[in-house]
Amino acid sequence: MMFLKRWCLLPLSGLLILAIVPTVPEVMDSMSMCPNFFLEGTPPEVPGILESGTILNQNRYKTICQTYNNTRRFVTLYDTVNRIPVFSAYKYRGTGKGKRPNPPWKIEPQVYFHSLLEGKNNINMVNSRSVRYEHQASDIDYKSDSKVYNRGHLFPSSHAFDESDKVSTFTLTNIVPQAISFNNGSWGKMENCVQCVMKKYCTDNNEVIEGFVVTGAKPSNNNILNERINIPEILWTAFCCYSSKVNKWLASAHWGDNIAEESKSKYLQTKTLQQLNQRLRSGEPRFEVFPRKECPKYETVTEYYPEINAKDKDCHCPNPPTTTTTAVPSTTAVPSTTAITERRKVSPS
After folding, report:
1. DSSP of 152-198
2. Reduced to 3 states, what is the DSSP secondary structure of residue 310?
3. Which of these ranges, 4-13, 23-32, 121-130, 188-197, has the smallest mean pLDDT?
4. Contact (Cβ atoms closer than 8 angstroms) between residue 136 and residue 80
5. Fewer CB in 10 Å around end: N or C, the chain?
6. What is the pLDDT of residues 252-294, one digit of tens each?
7. What's the CATH superfamily of 6-343?
């Protein structure tokens, strides 16, 4: 397959050279340094931006293998013009104990070389300063209009595995301006529900939790925060995993308009992958959040919500609708999850 081109962060072994010879970050032609954040290493199809694994405008869109404390945590496709991510992708591995951290907000030094000390030779995200960066958002961009929008995580810290992973999500390349009541309302409840589903059902045959999540933002045409940051009109997310508990692949999707919510009881409707693909489709080229055939495109996981709510008081999934599937077109072949399961190689993460 073809892989994303990316601005690569130096491997640790490369740091040994820095003391001898001045270097700059190596530009790689693939995502071979961080392949584990997509299901089987296959990124989404985003028409006009990312097609067949190739970034069409490599000057505008940058792939960031998000690195904190010399460890790669997740991956982001970043739009340097709108100064928001197209999407962030991560592997859900369960969550350890610990509260939401409150670290300094960070930036990606290889998207913008602010200084020699922070930029060219730094493999890690660094703290944002009180300046405006040309190709990415800065901390002060979000401080000027806190009454309407706050910082919406695409990879939420609540889904992160440990404390270091949680801290790594506080980078401005993983953030979009999000309506506060939407972020704290239906979107937050959806994140809770999806986490409960993955924690209970996304386990392989070795009882290791593993779920793949892609969360993105659809930019608006002319809604701009502080004349710099695009305020997306829609936020979307989807997950896919194999479940040894029910012996099949599971997937669902959600999206919501990035506007203020009047009702605190609102829930986002759980949708199929196919419904999300159609919602984000632009013209003839298809949008495909999970291009691989393992993920069921016409099913959701709403049938499991009652059991999840009954067994975990911290889970608040909505009541399921009367149906949990989307009719499969007669011309479309849906792969057998049983056959896929048999050839799935399951190993601990």
Report:
1. EESS-GGG-SSHHHHHHT-BGGGEEEEEHHHHHTHHHHHHHHHHHHH
2. helix
3. 23-32
4. yes
5. N
6. 999 999 999 999 899 999 999 999 999 998 766 789 999 999 9
7. Extracellular Endonuclease, subunit A (3.40.570.10)
